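Consider the tokenized backbone below.
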């Protein structure tokens, strides 16, 4: 049976905070509502602006269930390490760029990118490193650990508005 939070006085009851809830719900996009808004809260206390978002895709290897991220211990991928195709595709998705964009910025053919990302071909190391550099210049940060590889992308508030 779910546990309900204790109501310590009338002003904390959800029905008495409808005006505060409307204020929080009507907040502009990109704002984050504070979980509890007291009736006496100022508008500036109720809404906090965010400046960055973080997107992350982590791929776990092995047959067992994945370890918790805190126990995984990952670090930046060495610059000379060749990127797997699925990680290139994950980075593109997080960056919101197309294969055509990557073709232009990495100066490789679209077929090379498509075959690489779908596991049909392993391009020469020089081509793979060009793909990696183009994605990194766009903001992708590649990470690795004992049993994981992944990509992290930070987006600024102004990037989100585009």
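A designed sequence for it:
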């Amino acid at each position: 049976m779910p546990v309900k939070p204790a109501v310590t006085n009338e002003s904390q009851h959800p029905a008495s905070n409808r005006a505060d809830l409307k204020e929080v719900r009507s907040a502009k996009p990109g704002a984050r509502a504070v979980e509890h808004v007291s009736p006496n809260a100022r508008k500036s206390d109720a809404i906090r602006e965010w400046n960055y978002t973080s997107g992350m895709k982590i791929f776990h290897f092995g047959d067992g269930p994945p370890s918790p991220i805190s126990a995984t211990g990952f670090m930046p991928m060495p610059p000379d390490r060749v990127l797997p195709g699925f990680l290139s595709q994950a980075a593109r998705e997080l960056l919101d760029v197309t294969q055509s964009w990557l073709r232009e910025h990495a100066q490789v053919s679209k077929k090379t990118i498509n075959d690489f990302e779908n596991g049909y071909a392993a391009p020469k190391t020089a081509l793979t490193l060009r793909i990696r550099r183009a994605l990194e210049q766009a903001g992708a940060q590649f990470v690795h650990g004992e049993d994981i590889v992944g990509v992290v992308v930070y987006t600024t508030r102004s990037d989100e508005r585009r």
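The beta strands are 31-33, 47-49, 52-60, 75-76, 140-144, 148-156.
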